[in-house]
């Protein structure tokens, strides 16, 4: 996490976690969103490559492969709820 953001959250006059629960709709939704985000962050298939040195067609090919992988992983993880799909795509 960005150090400035961490500092601001630590000095807040309210509990940032409560705001997170409100934005997510419930504490359970927050837990599930974080679970889905961690699945992606820890999955080697979704690690970012340096696209700067790829040609346009290579970038397109990588994007298509990642999209296909995303659909496969959503099925594998049992993600079918529209809100969960949105979290997964982020």
Model description:
Helix 2 packs across helix 3. Helix content is 69%, strand content 0%. The two termini are 17 Å apart. It has a single domain, classed as Butyryl-Coa Dehydrogenase, subunit A, domain 1. The chain has helices spanning 3-10, 16-24, 27-41, 56-77, 82-89. With 90 residues, it is an all-alpha fold. The mean pLDDT is 89. The protein contains 5 helices and no strands. This is Acyl-Coenzyme A oxidase 1, palmitoyl, isoform CRA_d. Pathway: Lipid metabolism; peroxisomal fatty acid beta-oxidation. It comes from Rattus norvegicus (Rat). GO terms for molecular function: acyl-CoA oxidase activity; FAD binding.
Runs in which pLDDT lies below 50 for 5 or more consecutive residues are none
- Sheet having the most strands: none
What is the CATH H-level superfamily?
Acyl-CoA dehydrogenase/oxidase, N-terminal domain
Query: Structural class, from helix and strand content?
Result: mainly alpha
CATH class label: Mainly Alpha
Q: In whole angstroms, how far apart are the ends?
A: 17 Å
Output the number of helix runs. Answer: 5
Strand content: under 5%
General form: flat
List the quaternary state of the chains. Answer: single chain
What is the succession of H and E elements?
A: HHHHH
- Integer tally of domains: 1
CATH fold node name: Butyryl-Coa Dehydrogenase, subunit A, domain 1
CATH architecture: Orthogonal Bundle
Proportion of helical residues: 55-70%
Give average pLDDT, whole number: 89
What's the total count of β strands?
0
Q: How large, in whole angstroms, is the Cα Rg?
A: 17 Å
Organism: Rattus norvegicus
Domain Acyl-coenzyme A oxidase N-terminal: 15-87
GO molecular function, one term: acyl-CoA oxidase activity
InterPro entries: Acyl-CoA_ox_N, Acyl-CoA_oxidase, AcylCoA_DH/ox_N_sf
């Amino acid at each position: 996490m960005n150090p400035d953001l961490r500092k601001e959250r630590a000095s807040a006059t309210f509990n940032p976690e409560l705001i997170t629960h409100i934005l997510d709709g419930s504490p359970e939704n927050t837990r599930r969103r974080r679970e889905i985000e961690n699945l992606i962050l820890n999955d080697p298939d979704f690690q970012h490559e340096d696209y700067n040195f790829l040609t346009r067609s290579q970038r397109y090919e990588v994007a298509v492969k990642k999209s296909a992988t995303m659909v496969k992983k959503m099925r594998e993880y049992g993600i079918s709820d529209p809100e969960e799909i949105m979290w997964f795509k982020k």
